[in-house]
Inverse folding.
Protein backbone atom coordinates (compact mmCIF):
# COMPACT_ATOMS: atom_id res chain seq x y z
CA UNK A 1 0.00 0.00 0.00
CA UNK A 2 1.98 2.99 -1.30
CA UNK A 3 -0.31 5.28 -3.30
CA UNK A 4 -3.82 5.36 -1.87
CA UNK A 5 -6.97 7.09 -3.11
CA UNK A 6 -10.08 7.56 -0.98
CA UNK A 7 -13.10 7.74 -3.29
CA UNK A 8 -15.88 9.61 -1.49
CA UNK A 9 -19.59 9.51 -2.35
CA UNK A 10 -20.54 13.13 -1.48
CA UNK A 11 -24.24 12.22 -1.17
CA UNK A 12 -23.40 10.15 1.90
CA UNK A 13 -21.26 12.77 3.61
CA UNK A 14 -24.10 14.91 5.01
CA UNK A 15 -24.02 13.11 8.37
CA UNK A 16 -21.87 14.91 10.92
CA UNK A 17 -18.31 13.72 11.14
CA UNK A 18 -18.09 11.51 8.06
CA UNK A 19 -15.74 13.73 6.08
CA UNK A 20 -13.69 14.27 9.21
CA UNK A 21 -13.50 10.49 9.67
CA UNK A 22 -12.17 10.06 6.13
CA UNK A 23 -9.66 12.84 6.74
CA UNK A 24 -8.43 11.07 9.89
CA UNK A 25 -8.08 7.80 8.00
CA UNK A 26 -6.13 9.53 5.23
CA UNK A 27 -3.93 11.26 7.80
CA UNK A 28 -3.18 7.95 9.50
CA UNK A 29 -1.94 6.42 6.25
CA UNK A 30 0.15 9.50 5.47
CA UNK A 31 1.80 9.11 8.85
CA UNK A 32 2.60 5.52 7.84
CA UNK A 33 4.47 6.81 4.78
CA UNK A 34 1.74 6.39 2.16
CA UNK A 35 0.97 8.95 -0.54
CA UNK A 36 -2.74 9.62 -0.06
CA UNK A 37 -5.34 11.63 -1.97
CA UNK A 38 -9.10 12.02 -1.59
CA UNK A 39 -11.58 12.56 -4.41
CA UNK A 40 -15.34 12.97 -4.59
CA UNK A 41 -17.21 10.89 -7.15
CA UNK A 42 -18.64 13.42 -9.61
CA UNK A 43 -21.71 11.28 -10.30
CA UNK A 44 -22.77 7.65 -10.07
CA UNK A 45 -22.04 7.02 -13.74
CA UNK A 46 -18.68 8.83 -13.72
CA UNK A 47 -17.24 6.90 -10.77
CA UNK A 48 -16.06 4.04 -12.97
CA UNK A 49 -14.24 6.40 -15.32
CA UNK A 50 -12.67 8.21 -12.37
CA UNK A 51 -11.51 4.88 -10.91
CA UNK A 52 -10.07 3.82 -14.25
CA UNK A 53 -8.14 7.07 -14.43
CA UNK A 54 -6.91 6.57 -10.85
CA UNK A 55 -5.50 3.17 -11.83
CA UNK A 56 -3.84 4.73 -14.87
CA UNK A 57 -2.35 7.41 -12.60
CA UNK A 58 -0.62 4.74 -10.52
CA UNK A 59 -2.78 4.39 -7.41
CA UNK A 60 -2.27 0.86 -6.08
CA UNK A 61 -5.09 0.97 -3.50
CA UNK A 62 -8.54 2.53 -3.74
CA UNK A 63 -10.81 2.83 -0.70
CA UNK A 64 -14.47 3.36 -1.57
CA UNK A 65 -16.11 5.59 1.05
CA UNK A 66 -19.74 4.83 0.35
CA UNK A 67 -22.24 2.03 -0.03
CA UNK A 68 -22.66 -0.98 -2.29
CA UNK A 69 -23.85 1.20 -5.18
CA UNK A 70 -20.71 3.31 -5.07
CA UNK A 71 -18.55 0.18 -4.90
CA UNK A 72 -20.41 -1.22 -7.91
CA UNK A 73 -19.70 1.87 -9.99
CA UNK A 74 -16.02 2.01 -8.98
CA UNK A 75 -15.58 -1.68 -9.82
CA UNK A 76 -16.42 -0.91 -13.46
CA UNK A 77 -13.12 0.99 -13.67
CA UNK A 78 -10.99 -1.21 -11.40
CA UNK A 79 -11.97 -4.67 -12.70
CA UNK A 80 -9.05 -6.54 -14.22
CA UNK A 81 -6.40 -4.17 -12.84
CA UNK A 82 -3.72 -4.75 -10.21
CA UNK A 83 -5.18 -2.08 -7.90
CA UNK A 84 -6.58 -3.35 -4.59
CA UNK A 85 -10.07 -2.29 -3.50
CA UNK A 86 -10.94 -1.46 0.10
CA UNK A 87 -14.24 -0.39 1.66
CA UNK A 88 -15.13 2.27 4.22
CA UNK A 89 -18.84 1.40 4.71
CA UNK A 90 -21.12 4.46 4.67
CA UNK A 91 -24.11 2.97 2.82
CA UNK A 92 -27.51 1.60 3.79
CA UNK A 93 -27.08 -2.14 3.31
CA UNK A 94 -23.27 -2.41 3.21
CA UNK A 95 -23.66 -6.00 1.99
CA UNK A 96 -20.11 -6.39 0.72
CA UNK A 97 -18.72 -4.99 3.98
CA UNK A 98 -21.01 -7.36 5.88
CA UNK A 99 -19.57 -10.36 4.06
CA UNK A 100 -16.01 -9.15 4.61
CA UNK A 101 -16.88 -8.70 8.32
CA UNK A 102 -15.75 -5.08 8.28
CA UNK A 103 -16.53 -2.82 11.25
CA UNK A 104 -18.93 0.06 10.64
CA UNK A 105 -16.55 2.53 12.30
CA UNK A 106 -14.43 4.14 9.53
CA UNK A 107 -11.09 4.02 11.35
CA UNK A 108 -11.68 0.48 12.58
CA UNK A 109 -12.54 -0.57 9.02
CA UNK A 110 -9.33 1.00 7.73
CA UNK A 111 -7.18 -0.67 10.38
CA UNK A 112 -8.79 -4.04 9.61
CA UNK A 113 -7.84 -3.70 5.93
CA UNK A 114 -4.46 -2.01 6.23
CA UNK A 115 -2.48 -5.25 6.37
CA UNK A 116 -5.15 -7.53 4.93
CA UNK A 117 -4.38 -9.68 1.88
CA UNK A 118 -5.62 -8.49 -1.50
CA UNK A 119 -7.61 -11.55 -2.54
CA UNK A 120 -8.18 -12.03 -6.26
CA UNK A 121 -11.87 -12.90 -6.68
CA UNK A 122 -13.80 -13.75 -9.85
CA UNK A 123 -16.37 -11.08 -10.65
CA UNK A 124 -19.89 -11.67 -11.83
CA UNK A 125 -20.80 -10.15 -15.20
CA UNK A 126 -24.13 -8.96 -16.58
CA UNK A 127 -24.69 -8.24 -20.25
CA UNK A 128 -27.93 -6.34 -20.78
CA UNK A 129 -29.74 -3.65 -22.72
CA UNK A 130 -28.78 -0.39 -21.01
CA UNK A 131 -30.47 2.97 -21.69
CA UNK A 132 -28.19 5.32 -23.61
CA UNK A 133 -26.20 2.51 -25.25
CA UNK A 134 -26.88 1.19 -28.76
CA UNK A 135 -25.32 -2.20 -27.98
CA UNK A 136 -25.71 -4.39 -24.92
CA UNK A 137 -23.35 -3.26 -22.15
CA UNK A 138 -21.14 -5.30 -19.81
CA UNK A 139 -21.38 -4.70 -16.05
CA UNK A 140 -19.33 -6.34 -13.29
CA UNK A 141 -20.69 -7.15 -9.83
CA UNK A 142 -19.66 -8.64 -6.48
CA UNK A 143 -22.99 -9.17 -4.67
CA UNK A 144 -25.92 -10.17 -6.89
CA UNK A 145 -27.66 -9.50 -10.18
CA UNK A 146 -31.03 -10.45 -11.56
CA UNK A 147 -34.53 -9.65 -12.70
CA UNK A 148 -37.95 -9.50 -11.02
CA UNK A 149 -39.86 -7.52 -8.43
CA UNK A 150 -36.69 -7.08 -6.35
CA UNK A 151 -35.20 -5.09 -9.25
CA UNK A 152 -38.18 -2.76 -9.13
CA UNK A 153 -37.48 -2.29 -5.42
CA UNK A 154 -33.99 -1.03 -6.29
CA UNK A 155 -35.64 1.49 -8.61
CA UNK A 156 -37.71 3.09 -5.83
CA UNK A 157 -35.12 5.76 -5.12
CA UNK A 158 -32.77 6.06 -8.11
CA UNK A 159 -31.23 9.24 -6.68
CA UNK A 160 -30.55 7.59 -3.35
CA UNK A 161 -32.61 10.13 -1.40
CA UNK A 162 -35.13 7.62 -0.11
CA UNK A 163 -32.38 5.27 1.05
CA UNK A 164 -30.50 8.03 2.86
CA UNK A 165 -33.64 9.29 4.63
CA UNK A 166 -35.31 5.97 5.42
CA UNK A 167 -32.30 3.70 5.64
CA UNK A 168 -32.92 -0.05 5.63
CA UNK A 169 -36.52 0.56 6.68
CA UNK A 170 -37.11 2.18 3.28
CA UNK A 171 -36.27 -1.12 1.58
CA UNK A 172 -38.60 -3.21 3.76
CA UNK A 173 -41.43 -0.67 3.47
CA UNK A 174 -40.87 -0.42 -0.27
CA UNK A 175 -40.79 -4.19 -0.63
CA UNK A 176 -44.17 -4.57 1.05
CA UNK A 177 -45.56 -1.77 -1.11
CA UNK A 178 -44.27 -3.43 -4.28
CA UNK A 179 -45.73 -6.81 -3.37
CA UNK A 180 -49.09 -5.11 -3.02
CA UNK A 181 -48.97 -2.72 -6.00
CA UNK A 182 -46.31 -3.71 -8.54
CA UNK A 183 -47.31 -6.12 -11.35
CA UNK A 184 -45.99 -9.61 -10.68
CA UNK A 185 -45.12 -10.63 -14.22
CA UNK A 186 -43.23 -13.63 -15.58
CA UNK A 187 -40.11 -13.93 -17.70
CA UNK A 188 -38.35 -16.89 -19.29
CA UNK A 189 -35.34 -18.24 -17.44
CA UNK A 190 -32.59 -20.43 -18.91
CA UNK A 191 -29.94 -21.80 -16.56
CA UNK A 192 -26.77 -23.68 -17.37
CA UNK A 193 -25.77 -25.40 -14.14
CA UNK A 194 -22.19 -25.96 -12.99
CA UNK A 195 -22.68 -29.61 -14.04
CA UNK A 196 -23.41 -28.46 -17.62
CA UNK A 197 -27.14 -29.22 -17.58
CA UNK A 198 -29.41 -26.68 -19.30
CA UNK A 199 -32.75 -26.05 -17.58
CA UNK A 200 -35.59 -23.76 -18.59
CA UNK A 201 -38.66 -22.51 -16.74
CA UNK A 202 -40.85 -19.45 -16.33
CA UNK A 203 -40.12 -17.31 -13.27
CA UNK A 204 -41.15 -14.20 -11.39
CA UNK A 205 -37.81 -13.79 -9.60
CA UNK A 206 -34.20 -14.65 -10.43
CA UNK A 207 -31.22 -13.47 -8.38
CA UNK A 208 -27.71 -14.72 -9.20
CA UNK A 209 -25.68 -14.28 -6.01
CA UNK A 210 -21.94 -14.19 -5.30
CA UNK A 211 -21.93 -13.62 -1.51
CA UNK A 212 -22.95 -15.89 1.40
CA UNK A 213 -25.34 -13.36 3.00
CA UNK A 214 -27.46 -10.39 1.98
CA UNK A 215 -28.50 -8.88 5.30
CA UNK A 216 -31.00 -11.38 6.80
CA UNK A 217 -31.10 -13.57 3.69
CA UNK A 218 -28.54 -16.40 3.47
CA UNK A 219 -28.38 -17.53 -0.19
CA UNK A 220 -25.01 -19.27 0.29
CA UNK A 221 -22.90 -17.75 -2.46
CA UNK A 222 -19.11 -17.78 -2.42
CA UNK A 223 -16.93 -14.86 -3.57
CA UNK A 224 -13.99 -17.15 -4.26
CA UNK A 225 -15.71 -19.81 -6.37
CA UNK A 226 -16.18 -19.15 -10.11
CA UNK A 227 -19.91 -19.84 -10.03
CA UNK A 228 -23.26 -18.22 -9.35
CA UNK A 229 -25.73 -19.19 -6.64
CA UNK A 230 -29.06 -18.68 -8.39
CA UNK A 231 -32.23 -18.19 -6.34
CA UNK A 232 -35.44 -18.17 -8.35
CA UNK A 233 -39.19 -18.34 -7.85
CA UNK A 234 -41.22 -19.93 -10.59
CA UNK A 235 -44.24 -18.15 -12.06
CA UNK A 236 -46.80 -17.70 -9.31
CA UNK A 237 -49.33 -15.28 -7.87
CA UNK A 238 -48.67 -12.20 -5.78
CA UNK A 239 -49.50 -14.18 -2.65
CA UNK A 240 -47.24 -17.01 -3.79
CA UNK A 241 -44.32 -14.64 -4.29
CA UNK A 242 -44.85 -13.21 -0.81
CA UNK A 243 -44.91 -16.78 0.57
CA UNK A 244 -41.65 -17.71 -1.15
CA UNK A 245 -39.96 -14.49 -0.04
CA UNK A 246 -41.03 -14.97 3.58
CA UNK A 247 -39.65 -18.48 3.76
CA UNK A 248 -36.41 -17.59 1.95
CA UNK A 249 -35.64 -14.79 4.41
CA UNK A 250 -37.25 -15.89 7.67
CA UNK A 251 -37.47 -19.70 7.83
CA UNK A 252 -34.89 -20.71 5.22
CA UNK A 253 -37.27 -23.24 3.66
CA UNK A 254 -36.78 -23.75 -0.07
CA UNK A 255 -37.84 -26.06 -2.86
CA UNK A 256 -34.54 -27.98 -2.90
CA UNK A 257 -34.64 -29.32 0.64
CA UNK A 258 -37.66 -28.56 2.78
CA UNK A 259 -40.57 -28.57 0.38
CA UNK A 260 -39.64 -31.47 -1.86
CA UNK A 261 -38.89 -31.39 -5.58
CA UNK A 262 -42.52 -31.89 -6.64
CA UNK A 263 -44.07 -29.40 -4.23
CA UNK A 264 -46.65 -27.03 -5.72
CA UNK A 265 -46.05 -24.54 -2.96
CA UNK A 266 -44.13 -21.47 -4.16
CA UNK A 267 -40.77 -21.84 -2.44
CA UNK A 268 -37.50 -20.43 -3.70
CA UNK A 269 -35.34 -22.75 -5.77
CA UNK A 270 -31.53 -22.73 -5.66
CA UNK A 271 -29.15 -23.76 -8.45
CA UNK A 272 -25.36 -23.54 -8.74
CA UNK A 273 -24.99 -22.00 -12.17
CA UNK A 274 -22.44 -20.88 -14.69
CA UNK A 275 -24.80 -18.98 -17.00
CA UNK A 276 -28.20 -17.42 -16.31
CA UNK A 277 -30.29 -15.92 -19.11
CA UNK A 278 -33.45 -13.86 -18.48
CA UNK A 279 -35.75 -13.02 -21.41
CA UNK A 280 -39.26 -11.60 -21.85
CA UNK A 281 -41.96 -14.24 -22.22
CA UNK A 282 -43.14 -14.21 -25.86
CA UNK A 283 -46.58 -12.68 -26.48
CA UNK A 284 -46.98 -11.60 -22.84
CA UNK A 285 -48.45 -8.09 -22.50
CA UNK A 286 -46.21 -6.43 -19.92
CA UNK A 287 -47.64 -3.55 -17.90
CA UNK A 288 -44.24 -2.35 -16.68
CA UNK A 289 -40.67 -2.77 -17.97
CA UNK A 290 -38.66 -5.82 -16.95
CA UNK A 291 -35.80 -4.31 -15.00
CA UNK A 292 -32.28 -5.69 -14.55
CA UNK A 293 -30.32 -4.89 -11.38
CA UNK A 294 -26.81 -5.55 -10.13
CA UNK A 295 -25.52 -4.81 -6.62
CA UNK A 296 -28.64 -2.77 -5.89
CA UNK A 297 -28.37 -0.60 -9.01
CA UNK A 298 -30.88 -0.75 -11.87
CA UNK A 299 -28.71 -1.09 -14.98
CA UNK A 300 -30.97 -2.21 -17.80
CA UNK A 301 -34.24 -3.59 -19.12
CA UNK A 302 -35.84 -6.48 -20.99
CA UNK A 303 -33.09 -9.14 -21.00
CA UNK A 304 -29.91 -10.13 -19.22
CA UNK A 305 -27.17 -12.73 -19.50
CA UNK A 306 -25.37 -13.30 -16.19
CA UNK A 307 -22.07 -15.19 -16.02
CA UNK A 308 -18.71 -15.24 -14.27
CA UNK A 309 -16.36 -12.71 -15.86
CA UNK A 310 -12.83 -13.32 -17.03
CA UNK A 311 -11.83 -10.14 -15.22
CA UNK A 312 -11.07 -10.37 -11.52
CA UNK A 313 -10.94 -7.97 -8.60
CA UNK A 314 -8.21 -7.68 -5.93
CA UNK A 315 -10.26 -7.20 -2.77
CA UNK A 316 -8.81 -6.32 0.64
CA UNK A 317 -10.19 -9.11 2.83
CA UNK A 318 -9.35 -9.17 6.56
CA UNK A 319 -9.16 -12.64 8.05
CA UNK A 320 -9.30 -14.38 4.68
CA UNK A 321 -8.49 -18.08 4.85
CA UNK A 322 -7.87 -19.95 1.62
CA UNK A 323 -9.64 -23.29 2.04
Amino acid sequence: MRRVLFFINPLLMDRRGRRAAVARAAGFLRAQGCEVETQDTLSARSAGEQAQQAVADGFDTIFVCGGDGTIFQVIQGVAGSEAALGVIPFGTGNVLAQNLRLPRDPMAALLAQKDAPAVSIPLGKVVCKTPGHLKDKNWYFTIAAGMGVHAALMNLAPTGTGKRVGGALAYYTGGIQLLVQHPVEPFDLEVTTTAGEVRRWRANEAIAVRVPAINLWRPGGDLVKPELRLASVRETTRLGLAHATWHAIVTGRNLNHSAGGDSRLPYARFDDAGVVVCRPTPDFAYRSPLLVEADGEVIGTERATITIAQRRLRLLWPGFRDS
Q: What stands out?
A: The domain at 124-310 is CATH 2.60.200.40 (Tumour Suppressor Smad4). DSSP finds nine helices and 13 strands in the chain.
